[in-house]
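[Q] Does anyone have a clean structure-token version of this?
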Amino acid sequence: AHIPAVISSSQYAQLSDGWRKVFDERRCALRQRQQADKIRDGHGDLHLGNIALLDGHPIPFDCIEFSDELRCIDVLNDVAFLVMDCDAEQRADLGLRFLSRYLEYTGDYAGLAVLPLYLCYRASVRGKVACILADEQAPNQRDWKDARAYYALAQRYLHTAQPKLYAIGGPSGSGKSHLALLGCGAERAIIIRSDATRMRLSARHPELERYGPEMHRRTYAAMFEAARSSLAAGFSVILDATFLHPDARAGLYALKQASGVPLHAYWLDIDTNRLKANIAARKKHGRDISEADIQVLEQQLRVSKPPTDGRWQRLHSAAFWPSATQAPTSQHTSGGDHEPS
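[A] Here you go.
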């Protein structure tokens, strides 16, 4: 009864029709989630108000106990609530960082196909709750404003813009991961890191040398497959990897062509002494996922073949996210760097 006071009947119809359309398009993907055992006993109410920060660690609490149906859901439905709530609080960057880390840990990039449905659902439910709490005699109060904002957010999740592909390359210690975090919020993009991908693959294949050629090949292949799934689901992607060799860049250009999305590529060109200092500082603090040390860096610098064809915008600092409109956008149709391999 409250909804018509918040959004017009035409807006409601547009949201409802949009939901049904996306649901029908993703029906098979939803069924696959169930068959893949992605419906589990979770939290059910994972919004920002149900997470406490204890000793610097976020601790979820107050899960739904009164209803198995509301708590036993797709794991990405739980994830969607927190991502949406960060978005509603104007901190989409934090939501996307959380989503990126979750995907790194689980490798569940194929599930992104259904995430827009869950995001829309969570925003719609919050909008309805705000309507119920609102006082009809005070249309300008906070609850009414929140309800309108949630319904606008729900509508946006069903009509995403064309995704974009971003790549950040350069040797270890150049600041790629820091720059990716800046881009995550600026471009509303998911981050896919080679270090996290390699670590996940190493756990499955301990017989492979961590930085050997076969692990190198598998890491980039897994990153490109994850990016392909993300782009197909409508999410922009930032690939954080060294891209030191032409074969890795050839895979990137092939991904761009197959996905039909714009590519913005940034190359961090940092002085060698700064690279070594950054790695030393990283090792001292011990909080970085990268295992690359000075020896790995020196090996990279000996055998690397940085890009020379102009498709990469060179940066001398990772302190600021560059404007994508100023970066070279790859329009090439061929796969390689046109460099000798």
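[Q] Thanks! Anything notable?
[A] The beta strands are 39-41, 51-54, 57-60, 72-74, 165-169, 189-193, 236-240, 263-268, 312-315.
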